[in-house]
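Hi R.,

Here's the input for the nickel (II) ion complex you asked about:
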Amino acid sequence: MITMEDIVREGHPALRKTAENVDLPPSPEDRKTLEEMLQFVKNSQDEEMCDRYGLRPGVGLAAPQIDINKRMMAVHFTDTKDKEYSYGLFNPKIISHSVEYTYLSTGEGCLSVDREVPGYVPRYRRITMKATTLDGEEVKLRLKDFAAIVFQHELDHLNGIMFYDHINKDQPYALPENATPAD
Ligand SMILES: O=C(O)C[C@@H](Cc1ccccc1)[C@H](O)SCc1ccccc1
Ligand code: NI
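And here is the predicted structure with nickel (II) ion in place:
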């Protein structure tokens, strides 16, 4: 099972690479890895598992975070409208996005970043993402607000981007004109 020891931390080169597409249909090895990533995210939301294995709670994980240079990401969370998102995705791609932005008023964190980085992280408020699921299905996901933030945070990891790259260096709490908080 994946634990925090498997997660590389900022400064590790894996976090700054553009990950490679996964050949589909996925190999048994790639499927197993993505299943383990999804299981990690679920485990990280279970108090007993967190206590037993020292996990940090998370809502997503991207393969580069476990030093695997492949375009695979896992998310597991329920949004503010109680809609559940639980996916292991291969080769996710944003195919359209809003002009409008959103952000978390608390800022963002990252399982690969062992420090607080203050500031707002502006992200597209709505995105349409296509990907292939663990079951080999092509899906088109229309995501908004918190869900859009989570999926963009994970997709960034596949492109070597960290959340704090989006924070305005001079004014960390500056926002674009059309930004609405997701929380
Ligand atoms: O490091 C990761 O990719 C997992 C992050 C993803 C994330 C961070 C900020 C905003 C959205 C997604 C972890 O989930 S950070 C911990 C966390 C837990 C619950 C809600 C938001 C962030
Ligand atoms: Ni992260």
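One thing worth noting: Residues 57-62, 108-112, 149-150, 153-154, 157 surround K2U (ligand 1) (CB under 6 Å).

Cheers,
M.
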